[in-house]
Amino acid sequence: MHKHFDYREGFTVDTEAKYGEKFPYVDYGTAPIDPKRYYDPAQVDIEWEKMWTKTWLLAGFASDVPNVGDYFKFDIGRASIIVVRTRPDELKAFHNVCAHRANTLVTSDFGTVGKCFHCSFHGWEYDLDGNLIKIRDEEIFRPELISHRPGLTEVKLDLWGNFVCVNMDDNCGSLADFLGDIPKHLAGFHLDRFRPYRDDELWWDANWKTAMEAFIEFYHADDVHPEVLGSTETYRMQYDVLPNGHGRMIIPIGLPREYEDGDKISEADQQMLGIWGGTPDDYPEYDLSGRDFKKALTETKRGWAAKNGIDFTQLSDGQVTDDWNYSLFPNVTFNIFADVIMLQRWFPHPTDPEKSRYNAITCAIPVPDKNYKIWDINNFGPEAKGPMNFDGTVRPPRDRHENWEDFGYVLNQDIVLVPEVQKGLKSPGFKGFLPGEAEIRIRHYLAELDRVIAK
Predict the structure, then answer these.
(1) Helix (H) or strand (E) holding 15
(2) pLDDT band, very low/low/confident/very high, at 407 (cuts 50, 70, 90)
(3) Among residues 175, 443, 452, 438, which one has the least CA distance to residue 325?
(4) Is 1's pLDDT higher than 60?
(5) 253-277: buried (b, 16+ CB within 10 Å) or exposed (e) per residue?
C-alpha cells in the first residue's frame, strides 16, 4: 500500500528555528530531463560563456590570506584566478596570467609573494594591485606596444563573512542580491568562526552536474548510505527551493528513518554522545533507545559548546543536531551542523563534458580543549574522529587524491556511484531523468541554469 504524500506541502522539519519555515512550492512539471545536457560537448562552451563567467562563484576563505601578500589560487574551468590580500583590510582578485605571453603567475594553491608577482618566464612584475611595475629589458620593446602599461586583469570580488566570492563579469549584480536571505538564515551558526581541517580533491569521470546532483537530494541514502539509517531521517525531510537557483534540505539527525514510538536506537548509535564528551550514563532518567536519545544528543552538544565558550544560543534544538544543507547556484553545497561544516564544490573540465573536479573542505570551530577530537562527518558515526588540538591557525594543504577511499566512507559511497550514473546517460535504453519531489532541487537549479544561459 502506498503512503499518502502531498508533494505541494512536503515536510516542515524545524518549526522552532528562525527562518526554518517551509518555502512555497514551485511546480517544475514532470517532463524528463534530457541526458544530453550531461555529455554534449557543445554544452561545455555554452555553460562557460553564458554561466560560469557571469555568476558569483565561491572561491575560498578570507582566513586563508591573513597577511598582506598572501594569496590563494582559484581554478575554475578555463580560468585561474589569484585572490590576494593587498592591504590589511582589502582583498583583490586577478586573472592568473601574465599580460606579456600568458604565462601562469602562481602555481601553488596557497602562498605569499611579498610585494609583487614575478613572472617566471620573462621576469615581468606586478604589484599587489595588479599594476605592471617592471618590464625586464624594457628598451627592446617598441614604446607603442607597452605604453599602456598592461597590468593584471582584475576580477570582481566580494565577501560573505569569511567566504570570498568572485565574478568574472564586470557588469554583474551584487553578491548581496545573489545570495538573498541565505546569510540571514545562517546567521545563528556564526559561520565566520569555522576553519578548514580537511581539504580533499579528486578528478572523476562524470559531468559536474551529474556529480553535484547526488548531493542535493537524499533520496539515495537508503541504498547508498545504509550506515546512517540508524540515526538519520531520510524520508521526512524538508526540501526548499530558494531564489536565484539556490536550495535547501534539512536532514534530521538523532532518530532513524520514519521513527515511530517502539522503534529502537541502537547502542552503537547512542555512543555518538561520546563525540561531545557525553555518555549514556549521563542520562539515567532517559530512555535512550527511544525519542529521548535526540533530547540527550541536543543537551550533550549544548553542554559541550558552553564548556568551550561556543555560542549555540541562537540555534534551535534542531539546528544543534541536524544537517542544514544549503546549495548555492551553480556548484556549491554546505552540510551545516552546529560544530562542523562540509563545503563541497564541483568544477567543470575545460573541454571534456564527462569529467569534473570535486573538492570537499571540512571545517570546524577551534576549541580550547586540547583533548577534543573533531567530529569527522566524512565518516559519520561515533568513531568518526578528526584531528585533536585543532586551533584553526594552520591551514591544511589541499590533498589531491587518486584513491577515492581517502575521502572517508560516506563520500566514498557517492564517489563510486556517480561515474556509474554518467556511464548510463548514453544508454539507448535511457530516455531521460525522472526526478521526484525529493529531487526538486535538481529541477530548480537546472531551471536557473537555463534562465541564465538564455539571457
Answers:
(1) none
(2) low
(3) 438
(4) no
(5) bbbbbebeeeeebeeebbebbebbb
Output phi, psi for 182, to 5 deg: -60, -45
pLDDT in tens, 337-371: 999 999 999 999 999 999 999 999 999 999 888 78
Task: Give the domain CATH number at 142.
Answer: 2.102.10.10
Q: Is 248 helix (H, G, I), strand (E, B) or coil?
A: strand
Clarify whether residues 51 and 61 are in a common domain: no
- Grid-cell match 578548514, residue found: 196
| Close Cβ partners of 287 (under 8 Å, ≥ 6 residues apart) | none
C-alpha to C-alpha distances, 373 to 191, 339, 344, 365, 367, nearest whole angstrom: 20, 12, 22, 11, 10
Domains contained in the chain, number: 2
Could you tell me if 227 and 369 lie in one domain? yes
Distance CA(361)–CA(200), nearest Å, equals: 6
**Distance in angstroms (rounded) separating the CA atoms of residues 358 and 414:** 12
Amino acid of residue 369 = D
Examine the domain organization and report whether 229 and 356 are in the same domain: yes
Residue 126 sits in which domain range?
57-171
Q: Which cell is 423 given?
A: 556511464
Q: Output the nine-digit C-alpha cell for 433.
A: 531523468
Kindly state whether residues 247 and 315 are assigned to the same domain: yes
Angle between helices 41-50 and 440-453 (to 10 degrees): 70
Q: Could you report how far apart the first and last alpha carbons of the chain are, in Å?
A: 46
**Same domain (yes/no): 51, 89:** no
At 311 the three-state DSSP class reads coil
Cβ distance 86 to 68 under 8 Å?
A: yes
Give whole-number Cα distances, 196 to 267, 345, 361, in Å. Answer: 31, 14, 6
* CA–CA separation, 247 and 239 (whole Å): 8
Q: What is the pLDDT of residues 410-427, one digit of tens each?
A: 777 888 889 999 999 999
Angstrom distance (rounded) from CA 353 to CA 211: 12
Q: 110 and 233, same structural domain?
A: no
What is the rounded distance in angstroms from the CA atom of residue 369 to the CA atom of residue 276?
A: 11
Point out the least confidently predicted range of 108-112, 165-169, 293-297, 411-415.
411-415
Written as one string, the DSSP assignment of 109-154 is SEEE-TTEEE-TTT--EEETTS-EEE-TTGGGS-HHHHTT---PPE
Tell me how far the alpha carbon of residue 8 is from its chain's centroid: 28
**Beta strand pairing call for 373-375 and 385-388:** antiparallel
Cell numbers given for 356? 569534473
Is residue 112 one of the residues assigned to a domain? yes
Domain co-membership, 282 together with 392: yes
